[in-house]
């Protein structure tokens, strides 16, 4: 036997031994080994890989998990190291504030494109540092100080819609809203909006979302030279462009040098663009397909804002109960976050008879709470009235309104998002008559893919509308 053959055989033997060791460990000795779920999911990440990457159209594991919860119950081992507990009460236990620490599950995909960002901070303490440095810019008072800028963006939106009335142009409101929110968050973050290349950014960013699953398994962004990567991956082109724009921004020179700031900026723009716009376009679809809801909303807006040319202050819009209920329901039904928000705890967490040990990653699927039939009957139905009235169910629903998350890692941009939602919806429905144009729920609105946030089918053309006239 030649010596190199002996070495090869030893290598093969050691690899085999290692694989057998991993299999035995994951199936019999891992702290999650007795948890319910298919054996294959507990054995290998390839199970998740198949549904998220190989099974068309991609991002299908969250749907498979819904099916598995139906079979195994609320607690499920979903990968070798992760457990998902689809229970609204456990949500409150996991996503906490206060002194209990939660660490992001470090292999969770969030940070692969931007490891220096708030969203990618693994340790609780690092996250606190990053969050504290940003949160003062996103407080309610900070957002309100910039209201005049938001109003000027709304004026541009209304101008665009008035032009559409004149030209009979069909508006893709999904893209229009994304350009609006990109304009706001880029100006908010960099002092200069990226309007010149707005549409290109939005469309390329959507392509980028489609590469998210690949990035989770193949974190190539930091290992392959950027020029090569740009040829291969749309998300790399987006990142490069954004970094270029950022370096042209008004940030001080010293700050521009740091990759961390680039990462942070990227996350703010990603988190602040598609999120609000997706919720708004979902709202538009449901309002325009239900005349009774449209009519209630109109009545409220017409009474509160008699002059249709007047600017609508955020503070005034926030006081309108029906508009508020419509927007809450839009957030609930959109259930934006399909990505698993995975954390580990420093102490064991108990769920019924199951003890989840420190080190195991845990999540609750947001959709499982926002579509919980017991809390939100007929969850697929867009019904703003579930947020109104004196029923004791309303406070319970508010308690489980988790569209913006809970706890230390809840949405940083929640105040900005609400201001955008109120202003865009109030302006659109007070000032314009419109109808849907070739928009099909199954194709254009229904969430069927997990791309970190929920995306409709690959064939979606977006929610499109015809603006009929400017209201008086
Ligand atoms: C309707 C609109 C929005 C919804 C429904 C939404 C929802 C969420 C949710 C559920 C999370 C928690 C994610 C997790 O647990 O992993 C989150 C985090 C975050 N959101 Fe939003 N978001 C919206 C708009 C915005 C906007 C406008 C910004 C602008 C800055 C923003 C910035 C962020 C950031 C930076 C985080 C990470 C926070 C952290 O890790 O501490 N979001 N968002």
Automatic annotation (TrEMBL):
Keywords: Heme, Iron, Membrane, Metal-binding, Monooxygenase, Oxidoreductase, Signal, Transmembrane, Transmembrane helix
Transmembrane segments: 10-29
UniProt-annotated binding residues for heme: 411
InterPro entries assigned: Cyt_P450 (IPR001128), Cyt_P450_CS (IPR017972), Cyt_P450_E_grp-I (IPR002401), Cyt_P450_sf (IPR036396), Cytochrome_P450_monoxygenase (IPR050121)
Essential cofactor(s): heme
GO molecular function: heme binding; iron ion binding; monooxygenase activity; oxidoreductase activity, acting on paired donors, with incorporation or reduction of molecular oxygen
Origin: domain of life: Eukaryota
Keyword check for Protease: no
Family matches, as PANTHER family: CYTOCHROME P450, N-ACETYLTRYPTOPHAN 6-HYDROXYLASE IVOC-RELATED
Family: Belongs to the cytochrome P450 family.
Name assigned to this protein: Cytochrome P450
Species of origin: Rhizodiscina lignyota
């Amino acid at each position: 036997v030649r010596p190199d053959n002996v070495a090869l055989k030893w290598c093969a033997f050691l690899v085999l031994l290692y694989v057998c060791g991993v299999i035995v460990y994951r199936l019999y000795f891992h702290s999650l080994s007795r948890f319910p779920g298919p054996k294959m999911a507990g054995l290998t990440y390839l199970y998740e890989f198949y549904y998220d990457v190989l099974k068309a159209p991609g991002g299908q594991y969250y749907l498979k998990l819904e099916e598995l919860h139906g079979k195994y119950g609320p607690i499920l081992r979903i990968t070798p190291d992760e457990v998902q507990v689809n229970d609204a009460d456990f949500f409150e236990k996991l996503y906490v504030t206060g002194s209990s620490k939660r660490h992001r599950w470090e292999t969770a995909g969030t940070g692969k494109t931007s490891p220096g960002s708030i969203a990618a901070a693994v340790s609780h303490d690092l996250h606190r540092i990053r969050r504290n440095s940003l949160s003062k810019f996103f407080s309610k008072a900070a957002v309100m100080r910039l209201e005049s800028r938001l109003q000027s963006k709304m004026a541009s939106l209304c101008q665009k819609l008035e032009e559409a009335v004149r030209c009979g142009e069909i508006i893709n409101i999904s893209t229009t809203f994304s350009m609006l929110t990109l304009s706001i968050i880029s100006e908010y973050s960099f002092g200069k909006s990226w309007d010149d290349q707005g549409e290109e950014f939005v469309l390329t960013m959507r392509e980028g979302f489609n590469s998210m699953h690949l990035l989770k398994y193949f974190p190539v962004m930091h290992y392959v030279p950027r020029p090569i990567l740009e040829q291969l991956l749309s998300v790399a082109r987006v990142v490069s462009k954004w970094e270029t724009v950022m370096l042209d921004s008004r940030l001080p020179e010293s700050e521009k040098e740091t990759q961390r700031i680039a990462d942070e900026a990227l996350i703010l723009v990603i988190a602040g663009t598609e999120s609000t716009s997706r919720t708004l376009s979902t709202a538009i679809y449901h309002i325009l397909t239900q005349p009774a809801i449209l009519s209630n909303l109109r009545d409220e807006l017409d009474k509160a804002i008699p002059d249709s040319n007047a600017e609508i202050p955020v503070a005034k819009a926030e006081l309108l109960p029906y508009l508020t209920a419509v927007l809450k329901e839009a957030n609930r039904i959109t259930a934006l976050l399909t990505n698993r928000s995975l954390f580990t705890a420093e102490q064991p967490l108990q769920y019924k008879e199951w003890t989840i040990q420190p080190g195991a990653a845990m999540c609750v699927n947001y959709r499982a709470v926002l579509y919980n039939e017991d809390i939100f009957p007929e969850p697929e139905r867009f019904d703003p009235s579930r947020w109104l009235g004196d029923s004791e169910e309303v406070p319970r629903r508010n308690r489980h309104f988790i569209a913006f998350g809970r706890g230390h890692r809840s949405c940083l941009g929640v105040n900005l998002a609400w201001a955008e939602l109120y202003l865009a919806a109030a302006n659109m429905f007070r000032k314009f008559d419109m109808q849907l144009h070739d928009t099909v729920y199954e194709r254009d609105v229904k969430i069927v893919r997990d791309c970190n946030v929920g995306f409709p089918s690959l064939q979606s053309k977006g929610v499109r509308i015809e603006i009929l006239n400017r209201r008086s």
